[in-house]
Amino acid sequence: MKTVNKVALTTIKVIAGLVVVILAFLIGRILIQGLPHISWHFLTSPSQEFIAGGGISYQLFNSFYLLILTLLISFPISLGAGIFLSEYAPKNWFTEIIRMAIEILSSLPSVVVGLFGFLLFVVQFKMGFSIIAGAIALTFFNLPLLTRNVEQALESVSDLQREAGLALGLSKWKTVIKVIIPEALPGIVTGIVLGAGRVFGEAAALIYTAGQSASTIDFTNWNPFNAASPLNWSRPAETLAVHIWKINSEGIMPDAAAVSAGTSAVLIIVVLIFNLSARYLGNKLYRKYTAAGK
After folding, report:
1. Residue 131 has what pLDDT?
2. Is the dihedral of CA 129, 131, 134, 136 positive or negative?
3. For residue 126, how many C-alpha atoms fall within 13 Å in the half-sphere facing its CB?
4. Average pLDDT of the chain to the nearest whole number
5. Where do runs of H (alpha helix) occur along the chain?
6. CB count, 10 Å around CB of 173?
7. Residue 206 and residue 213: Cα distance in Å, rounded?
8. How far apart are CA 189 and CA 267, in angstroms?
9. Residue 291's pLDDT band (cuts 50, 70, 90)
10. pTM for the whole thing?
11. Is the pLDDT of residue 51 over 60?
12. In this predicted structure, what is the pLDDT of residue 107?
């Protein structure tokens, strides 16, 4: 029995080590190839189609803007759904249907979400290729992850906390708002940041909704109703991930390899920052809201 346990443990360690090595190899290769091409000019200048020396300023801004809009739409919905499933939902067929719908939605390929967004928002609702169409499509992509994260964070709070709130005369809703959510906040914030990293690197869903072109942006005009404004959500918006796919599929840019490598490195760096920030914020909030920080 001890031999079997030792073999199983060794096998698990080897598999885990192999995953780490593969991940380190991929990230290292992307960074080694891409970092030499990153410069201030590369990050702040617009992209070029037919001449070398272009940058990714529009794509970088579009990626963050799309991410913010997506979180503004998806987080309130996910928070409400997570609170309902964790605190109020009875164990019946209706709740099971909701959970099944969340699981099915989370298993959909992103290209299917993109095609759905194209047919419904771009064509049927006549939004055209736009930031808002992309944000709504990414909301469908992000909802299952955020909802499950909120639900699990709330369920991880001890029932003693709920009983304490009720014993103090608080209503069920007040107990959730004043006691349970602050206790679950570290897990919720961690999930938001990790979900942001996942959304930031999405490409397939945005090809059919936000579009494959980066319209000219005037960073001195912040009127959201002006076509040239960065905040205009009805304009097409090519993101970093879509930009990588486009320049590699078309191959018309003279320095396509260099731009692709640099853009990939920027994308990887931002996603790594999201993941490290999630760990840091989660630990910091955990120490702040629990006895661990006392």
Report:
1. 92
2. negative
3. 0
4. 86
5. 2-34, 40-44, 57-83, 93-107, 110-117, 131-155, 159-167, 172-175, 181-200, 204-207, 240-250, 256-289
6. 11
7. 11
8. 21
9. low
10. 0.88
11. yes
12. 84
**Cα dihedral: 144, 271, 19, 28 (round 10):** 160
Angstrom distances, CA of residue 173 to CA of 89, 166, 169, 176: 14, 10, 11, 5
The CA–CA distances, whole Å, from 140 to 106, 109, 137 equal 9, 11, 5
Separation in Å, CA 50 to CA 30, 54, 255: 24, 9, 9
Q: Helix, strand or coil for residue 158?
A: coil
The mean pLDDT value for 203-230 works out to 85
Per-residue pLDDT at 32 exceeds 70: yes
Output the pLDDT for position 33: 92
The Cα–Cα gap between 228 and 162 comes to: 51
Two tokens at 27? Answer: 């990230």
As a dihedral over the C-alpha atoms of residue 16, residue 19, residue 23, residue 28, rounded to 10 degrees, the angle is 80
Virtual CA dihedral for 152, 202, 199, 60, nearest 10 degrees? 160
Instruction: Write down the pLDDT at residue 77.
Output: 92
By three-state DSSP, how is residue 216 classified?
A: coil
